[in-house]
């Protein structure tokens, strides 16, 4: 197997390797500052015309893009599968399929969401004034995307950005450059105008160059550690950012659940994509009355998972870990748990970059596997007694991406959801919401800043312009202009009472004074 190791000297090329087999999939430029600046300049030039296209023309391009994906979905999934070392089935359902719905949603709804709005401005409307809010694109959006969903995350952000009138420069993960280049090739195949979507391949330095290259906004998905570094660099030019960062997502299981269904969900939520999902279930809290029975079930089912890689889309369930670096973190959390007295109930065998899914018990918040993001197929499970205790345990985290509540009592679940400090709370489901384009996606606390997807994600792609119209501006002077005079001062007092006095008599007296003096006041000028 060809190892993925970090190097001290910066190589000129990136090597894309299937982590499951060691197969070299290709070599790609490790781009430098000059190459990144060139890509950004192309995008800036293209945006001058793209940003003025009507919404319906942008939508036509996006639907053409969608249709190309639909027709080539298996080939696209195959590239992703090999570069991630997961099954083709998993790549298809998680990384490609959701994009089709996302394209349709934004092609259909962007114009409606971003339409110009008249704003009610109260008393000002009665003196001949109007205000409007309209939206305009940032310009060039820089997207730094992760390896765990190398197609759906960047493509979703690109589609939203393009529909809002921006152009994009994408920097894919150094572990998945082939998928990044494939995205560019798809846009080229539909003959999207040059410069509208650019891709720069490279390592962390390439990403740093992109942040510094004069893009108008940065969208980053990745670790909290790297996100903090990007924010620091972006702050030098006050470049705005949207950050979708880490998670330590809890699953709360009450005693009234269907054990068979809920245990299936727990296993899927924990081990899908080899546990390498920011929204993976990384902690489970189970009500004590059913704790032992529930644990026995998930242990039994976890042992049935097939760990491996094959060209047959459905032969294995759990694929490879992406790199040695990620494997070391997983090992660290498992060893820390063992040293502190935890019990490994299932899995844990490691061969190359394959980790048999792990169930761990006898743990609490002092364990790394409970408090830190693992990002691997490792699941700690713990008991709780009361509703309040479950809420407290779930909220005891620096992260706040997603959480889930499992119970037949939907009213109780809704009540608990309102007390969980998470950006998304699912009731009797997990993982799914990133695939729903109509709803916002993002985190609170150290899980991120801003949103992608939904109306909220579209609004992150535009700036707000307020247009104010004074219909009388060429007919009459405003009474607060220079010079300041006694008459203007008394006029201001009358205006204050007219607007804010709670007494009708004072309002009427003030209105009469304003009508009496408006002509005189308006004639006073420098």
Please provide a written account of the structure.
This protein is α/β, with parallel strands linked by helices. Helix content is 43%, strand content 19%. It has 17 helices and 22 strands. The chain has helices at 33-50, 55-71, 73-84, 88-113, 152-163, 177-189, 204-212, 224-235, 259-271, 288-302, 324-339, 368-371, 387-395, 410-417, 454-459, 486-500, 504-522, and strands at 13-17, 24-29, 117-119, 129-137, 140-144, 167-171, 197-199, 217-221, 241-244, 249-253, 281-287, 343-346, 350-351, 354-355, 358-361, 378-384, 399-400, 402-406, 424-427, 444-445, 448-449, 462-470. Strand 6, helix 6 (177-189) and strand 7 form a beta-alpha-beta unit. Helix 2 (55-71) runs antiparallel to helix 4 (88-113), helix 3 packs across helix 4 and helix 16 (486-500) packs antiparallel against helix 17. The longest helix has 26 residues, at 88-113. The protein is globular and about 90 Å long.
Which CATH class of the largest domain is shown? Alpha Beta
Q: Report the sheet-strand fraction.
A: 15-25%
How many strands, what sense, and barrel or not for the largest sheet?
A: 7 strands, mixed
State the CATH topology of the largest domain. Aldehyde Dehydrogenase, Chain A, domain 1
Q: Segments where pLDDT lies below 50 for 5+ residues? A: none
What is the helix content? 40-55%
- Please give the number of β-strands: 22
**Can you identify the CATH superfamily of the largest domain?**
Aldehyde Dehydrogenase, Chain A, domain 1
